[in-house]
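Students often ask why inverse folding is considered easier than folding. One informal answer: many sequences map to the same fold, so there is more than one right answer. In these notes we will look at a single instance of the problem. The structure comes first.
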C-alpha cells in the first residue's frame, strides 16, 4: 500500500512539472517598494492549486509560489502538510496587495485553520515567513509579473 502512495505522489509531481493550463509562466514577481523581486513557481491547474507547497522542505531565499485563479474571489488557504512558516500576500485583479497574512505556521492538528483574505483576490503569493516585513512589502503596493511564453512540446 505504501508503494502505491509513493507512486501516486511521484505521478502528481510529474504532472505538476509538465502541466500549464494558461499557456504562460510567471518567472518573477516584483513590488513597487525597494525593487523587491521574487522568483516564482506558478500554480494554476486544479491539482497545483490544491497541492501548493505541501510535502516540501522549504523555499529557497527569494523564491515563492504564485497561485493564479480564473477570477477574483475569497480563496481559503491552509497549512496542511506544509512544514515551514509562510507569509501569504493576497493580490487583486489589478495586482494590488489587498492583504498580507504574516508568519502562518504549519498545521499541527486536524482540522487545520483556513486563512482568508480581507478582500477578493485573483492571485496569492506564498513566500517564507518574514519576507513581507523584511522587504517592506505592504498593503496598497503593486506587484508586477514578468512572463515568458511557453512553447508547446518545447
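Output (designed amino acids):
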Amino acid at each position: 500500500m505504501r508503494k502505491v502512495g509513493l507512486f501516486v505522489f511521484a505521478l502528481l509531481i510529474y504532472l505538476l512539472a509538465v502541466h500549464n493550463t494558461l499557456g504562460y509562466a510567471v518567472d518573477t514577481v516584483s513590488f513597487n517598494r525597494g525593487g523587491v523581486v521574487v522568483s516564482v513557481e506558478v500554480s494554476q491547474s486544479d491539482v497545483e492549486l490544491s497541492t501548493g507547497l505541501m510535502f516540501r522542505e522549504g523555499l529557497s531565499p527569494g523564491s515563492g509560489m504564485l497561485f493564479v485563479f480564473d477570477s477574483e474571489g475569497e480563496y481559503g488557504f491552509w497549512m496542511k502538510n506544509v512544514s515551514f512558516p509562510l507569509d501569504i500576500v493576497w493580490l487583486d485583479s489589478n495586482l494590488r496587495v489587498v492583504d498580507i497574512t504574516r508568519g502562518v505556521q504549519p498545521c499541527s492538528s486536524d482540522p487545520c485553520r483556513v486563512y482568508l483574505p480581507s478582500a477578493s483576490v485573483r492571485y496569492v503569493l506564498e513566500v517564507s515567513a518574514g519576507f513581507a516585513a523584511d522587504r517592506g512589502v505592504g498593503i496598497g503596493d503593486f506587484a508586477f509579473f514578468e512572463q515568458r511564453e511557453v512553447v508547446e512540446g518545447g
